[in-house]
């Protein structure tokens, strides 16, 4: 069967077919990706009201793409006190924040308890807040530094109030590329293992992919397929009749643990050690988003993370397979340190207006994609 026939019939695509998708013109790709997106999420564009907190930037690892870590590059290393963190949470709750997204560096000077107390403190005061925290890379670092097994850390996270795991630390799974850009950090195998364990607890997480640096198209397809494979395993592990069979028929709340969203992160090039010639064009970014929608037939949402793609392109991406913009963010350090224009977030009213003027329907969601308000 030809690639186009398979796309017409919504059939699962393999590695060679995934790679061949890049040879299609952008609008053909967009047409098929949008068809899947419409089937899964109609013309809704999801966003949430969230706040990113990065409690410390002091890092023992040396990822070349990272401009956030204070280990070698900048002299502004910081570690927030719990009081400082709580003050941020107190302030942001007043603005209607529903999710706190906490990601730290791999700081050798703080204890696992230091992290856990942050989660407990927030959850005790604001039980309604969703805590999305601890990338698989952080969990792996706790194992390397403090000899905590993955399962021990995951159980502690749950006991102390973490609701879901963010998708960070995945970068690009191909081992040869990983060796060059983030040697020593969590391996691809372990990143996937940690998410599998988390899903086995009936919990949700996201998966990212950092692209537009030294990887090529084949590495991106390989990355997406490793994520699809784990999602198949997690769905099987959590055996639910309602769980999706392969081939896209996801309904709301049908998943019982697994990946909620795939997030392609566009590489930002400022203030880091990874020197790249040329910038990834918008066509390649949109193609990659569209291809992720077509390949990841078992993941309900594709997030065009506006902080790394710009808000304009993230809006266009909504017609090329994406259905989510992430959130208002309010304050962001990881990508903005590397040149992204996300330092101060976006206002909810801007989101709503921009989505509406794109002819789509803004939907404020919670962290697990339950709909809070539809702005018709
Ligand atoms: O893993 C670091 C990336 C990630 C750069 O789960 C960079 O909802 C671009 O994972 N250019 C952390 N990206 C952030 C993250 C995330 C963001 C938004 C939502 C979610 C979610 C997760 O940031 C890291 C790394 O891949 N990153 N440096 C850079 N120069």
From TrEMBL:
The keyword Iron-sulfur applies. The keyword 4Fe-4S applies. One of its GO terms (molecular function) is aminodeoxyfutalosine synthase activity. One of its GO terms (biological process) is menaquinone biosynthetic process. It is an enzyme of class 2 (transferase). Pathway: Quinol/quinone metabolism; menaquinone biosynthesis. Its cofactor is [4Fe-4S] cluster. Its EC number is 2.5.1.120. This is Aminodeoxyfutalosine synthase. It comes from Campylobacter hyointestinalis subsp. hyointestinalis.
């Amino acid at each position: 069967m030809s690639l186009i026939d398979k796309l017409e019939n919504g059939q699962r695509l393999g590695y060679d077919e995934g790679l061949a998708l890049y040879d299609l013109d952008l609008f053909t790709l967009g047409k098929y990706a949008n068809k899947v997106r419409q089937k899964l999420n109609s013309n809704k564009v999801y966003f949430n009201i969230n706040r990113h907190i990065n409690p410390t930037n002091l890092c023992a690892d040396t990822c070349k793409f990272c401009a956030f870590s204070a280990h070698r590059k900048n002299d502004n290393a910081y570690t927030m006190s719990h009081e400082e963190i709580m003050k941020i949470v107190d302030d942001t709750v007043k603005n209607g924040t529903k999710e706190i997204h906490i990601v730290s560096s791999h700081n050798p000077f703080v204890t696992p308890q230091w992290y856990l107390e942050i989660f407990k403190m927030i959850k005790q005061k604001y039980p309604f807040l969703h805590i999305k925290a601890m990338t698989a890379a952080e969990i792996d670092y706790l194992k390397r530094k403090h000899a905590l097994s993955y399962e021990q850390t995951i159980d502690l996270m749950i006991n102390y109030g973490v609701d879901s795991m963010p998708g960070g630390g995945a970068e690009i799974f191909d081992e040869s590329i990983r060796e060059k850009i983030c040697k020593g950090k969590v391996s691809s195998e372990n990143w996937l293992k940690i998410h599998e364990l988390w899903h086995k607890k009936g919990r949700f997480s996201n998966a990212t992919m950092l692209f537009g640096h030294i990887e090529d198209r084949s590495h991106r397809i390989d990355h997406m397929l490793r994520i699809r494979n784990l999602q198949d395993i997690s769905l099987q592990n959590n055996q639910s009749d309602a769980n999706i069979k392969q081939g896209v028929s996801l309904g709301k709340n049908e998943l019982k643990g697994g990946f909620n969203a795939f997030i392609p992160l566009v590489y930002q090039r400022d203030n880091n050690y990874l020197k790249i010639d040329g910038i990834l064009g918008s066509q390649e970014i949109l193609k990659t988003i569209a291809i992720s929608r077509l390949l990841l037939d078992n993941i309900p949402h594709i997030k065009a993370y506006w902080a790394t793609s710009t808000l304009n392109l993230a809006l266009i991406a909504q017609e090329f397979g994406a259905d989510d913009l992430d959130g208002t963010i309010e304050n962001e350090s990881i990508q903005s340190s590397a040149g992204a224009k996300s330092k101060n977030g976006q206002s909810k009213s801007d989101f709503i207006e921009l989505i509406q003027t794109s002819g789509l329907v803004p939907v404020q969601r919670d962290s697990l994609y339950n709909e809070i308000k539809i702005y018709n």
